[in-house]
Specification:
By secondary structure, the protein is mostly helical. The chain has 13 helices and no strands.
Length: 272
Amino acid sequence: MIAEFLSYGFVQRGLAAGSLVAASCALLGVFLVLKRLSLIGDGMSHVCLTGVAVALLTSANPVYMSVPVVVLSSLGIMKITQKFKIYGDAAIGIVSAAGLSVGLLITALAGGFNTDLLGYLFGSILTVSRDEALLCGILLAAVLAGLFFFYRDLTSACFDEPFARTRGVPVRAVNTALVVVTSVAVVLAFKVVGIFLISALLIIPPVSALLISRTFKQVLWLSAAFGVGSVWAGVYLSFLFNIPSGATIILVNLLFLAGAYIYSKTGGLHAR
């Protein structure tokens, strides 16, 4: 059964793209969770609806149309936070509401909900194209390069921003880069789990890893492992039982979270 499952080209592309984007989201999510910006995925996913709706209205590629829309919205969140001196979650809520409202209006103009739009709302990992899989690979390469070259700046800005500034770390630039790259990850992830479930890929794997890890680097790699593992298990289970892949991936993530919680509470950490 597994050999048959892996023999299909569309499954191979879906697993490759899903693994790449899940690893990217999980790694980025670690910093977002620790900086209390984890809901940015939820906010940006709502903005994605605007990009997808415009793409369907103009017959453009939804991924290419959504990237500039979501990136500009993420920069808007940073600007609102800085200019009006409000917390990040409030800025996320403002931009999220605006994006969702505009997206719904454009959807109505485009003729309402159709099969294509529903696929983006709830995920359609097995329809990922070769070009989209390549973009997911470029995204993960960029995330890994950022971790390799700017690891100290990222961790300093994540744990203690005032101290990081005294050390000369460009905190604002680091935060902006993190939010922009996360925006791209959100756009690429809507084919994997759907617009409404993207935030789970950014939040659940890092939280699971934080529960059972002893070092920060271990958190990063465990988070990525949980994200990739959930994609493989979720896609296989959805293929086996003919159920939605996006929702199944998130449910597998929740099982990982439950297992990590139980492990942390039953002495697993101390036993090591």
